[in-house]
Specification:
The chain is 88% helix and 0% strand. The protein is built from five helices and no strands.
Length: 162
């Protein structure tokens, strides 16, 4: 049983690390870099990124993140309460990240896509689309990065204590 517990915690830790790294990369590199660019570039690049990220690799990691955290909690029931407590904290943080994505980031991504191809938009419209998207998306992404990083830390502590 210890092998199953450790495997579950390690699997949850790996996918959480991948997700936290993705959100962190956007928070500290991609979005600050795009912030220095013109409206047309920002809208066009984010439209392409939002299309590209909907791929099997990302979706498996994204969906399995809270699922594997829940599995880790489930198989570790009966372990010392400190282990289970850290794993539950990781699960809560993973669910927060998922909820922020579904309720915050995805609607902004959908609105960005609905604006249509950036090449067909007038300058004033591109500026409006950017204003309605960028600041909110950046805030939501920072929350996702923090929540995912906290989940990762909690999983690591849970694994060490296991």
């Amino acid at each position: 049983m210890e092998g199953v517990r450790l495997a579950a915690v390690v699997a949850a830790t790996v996918v959480t690390g991948l997700l936290a790294g993705t959100f962190f990369g956007f928070a500290v590199g991609v979005m600050p870099g795009l912030a220095r660019m013109g409206d047309r570039v920002v809208v066009g690049v984010m439209q392409r990124i939002n299309e590209a990220i909907l791929n099997p690799w990302f979706l498996v990691v994204f969906v399995s993140n809270p699922v594997l955290a829940a599995v880790a909690v489930g198989v570790c029931v009966g372990s010392p309460w400190t282990v289970v407590g850290w794993l539950v904290a990781a699960l809560v943080c993973s669910v927060v990240s998922l909820a922020v994505t579904v309720r915050g980031s995805v609607p902004l991504n959908d609105a960005l896509a609905a604006a249509g191809p950036v090449e067909r938009l007038a300058e004033a419209e591109v500026a409006r689309v950017r204003r309605r998207f960028e600041a909110g998306w950046v805030r939501f992404n920072v929350v996702r990065a923090v929540a995912s990083t906290l989940a990762l830390g909690c999983l690591v502590v849970g694994a060490v204590l296991l």
